[in-house]
Amino acid sequence: MTQLSAAQRTPDSGKALYGGKGTRRITVRDITAAKDRGEKWPMLTAYDAMTASVFDEAGIPVMLVGDSAGNCHLGYESTVPVTLDEMTMLSAAVVRGTNRALIVGDLPFGSYQEGPVQALRSATRLVKEAGVGAVKLEGGERSHRQIELLVESGIPVMAHIGLTPQSVNAMGYRVQGRGEEAAQQLLRDAKAVQDAGAFAVVLELVPAELAAEVTRVLHIPTVGIGAGAETDAQVLVWTDMLGLTGGKMPRFVKQYANLRSVMGDAAKAFAEDVVGGTFPQEEHSVH
Ligand SMILES: Nc1nc(=O)c2c([nH]1)NC[C@@H]1CN(c3ccc(C(=O)N[C@@H](CCC(=O)O)C(=O)O)cc3)CN21
Ligand SMILES: CC(C)C(=O)C(=O)O
Ligand SMILES: [Mg+2]
Questions:
Q1: What's the pLDDT tens digit per position in 164-209?
Q2: What residue segments make up the domains of the chain, in order of their start?
Q3: Can you give the pLDDT at residue 37?
Q4: What residues does Mg(2+) bind to (predicted)?
Q5: Residue of the nearest CA to atom 3 in ligand 1?
Q6: What is the CATH number of domain 28-256?
């Protein structure tokens, strides 16, 4: 792989993305280097500064300000209504809450489909106003011109193929790449985004065997969500992973905590203290 010049090499180069104890902010070059070392890495979504600071201190090397903020954070039915103004505000908060993680801002539906120039205008807002280190957009072959112009303009791009939720009205939430023809299309999409210059690609809800093949064929890292164990990285929506989202979870979610019950129980305890007159106590009062 590419050798870094002395000027590009920094004290943190070559450290593990997770557990590497690096102090400067992670760059897309570090992500590329991790695949060359065969290292797997975790990505979580984040939508606010406070949550992002928790994950940053936990050593999560890459955070995605996902347009899943639409359904997880803003109360929409899907990601479709999310606006670029909303993504800019949430992305800026996540950047402010973090010191080390690479922050990737999701381009929302309608902010890049018109063409490369619109994509560049939208991505530029996330880079200049929010300070993200990279952007993500959905689509393989269909988005390759957008990816090319962003990369030419100096904006690193994470691509996203397989299930692309912004197209829910056209494709539903269904497994992608099943069957020979669909598998060949997914491989073409993966190669198209790599050729266009994407530094990584999300594979969402595709058969594990196909995701493994894409991961072997590509030199850029694959980030799986519902794509089996062989991808270079894994991403989960943070509110799913911590049991906060509520409702029926997709099969690919592993729940590492149940914040919904922790928070609900705490809220009830507070309410009972207030109603019963046991909060505040003397130690919570000033005189
Ligand atoms: N909370 C949340 N978690 C996510 O992972 C997520 C979002 N929101 N919003 C944006 C997209 C939409 N995603 C989705 C949405 C639904 C399914 C789903 O219904 N999957 C089912 C059926 C799949 C099938 O068999 O075809 C599953 O059980 O996995 C999967 C991914 C993933 N992303
Ligand atoms: C599920 C991930 C990849 C995403 O695009 C999001 O959270 O918006
Ligand atoms: Mg998204």
A1: 999 999 999 999 999 999 999 999 999 999 999 999 999 999 999 9
A2: 28-256, 258-287
A3: 94
A4: 67, 106, 138
A5: 237
A6: 3.20.20.60
Residue with the two structure tokens 């539903």: 172
Q: 65 CB under 6 A from ligand 1?
A: no
Q: Give Cα separations from 77 to 27, 80, 241, 272 (angstroms).
A: 33, 8, 19, 33
**The tokens of 37 are what?**
């070392």
Model pLDDT, residue 1: 47
> ipTM score of the complex?
0.95
Closest protein CA for atom 22 of ligand 1: 174
Q: Name the residues around ion ligand 3, CB cutoff 5 A.
A: 66-67, 106
State the pLDDT confidence band at 149, using cuts at 50, 70 and 90.
very high
Quick one: which atom of ligand 2 is closest to the CA of 202? Answer: 3
Question: pTM of the prediction?
Answer: 0.95
Give 180: exposed, middle or buried? Use CB within 10 Å, 0-12, 13-18, 19+. Answer: exposed
Q: How far is the CA of 205 from the centre of ligand 3 (A)?
A: 13
Q: Is 114 a catalytic residue?
A: no
Distance CA 192, CA 144 (A): 6
Catalytic residue among 57, 114, 148, 204: 204
Kindly identify the ligand whose nearest atom is closest to the C-alpha of 109: 3
Q: Which helix (H) or strand (E) holds 183?
A: helix 180-196
CA of 187 to the centre of ligand 2 (A): 20
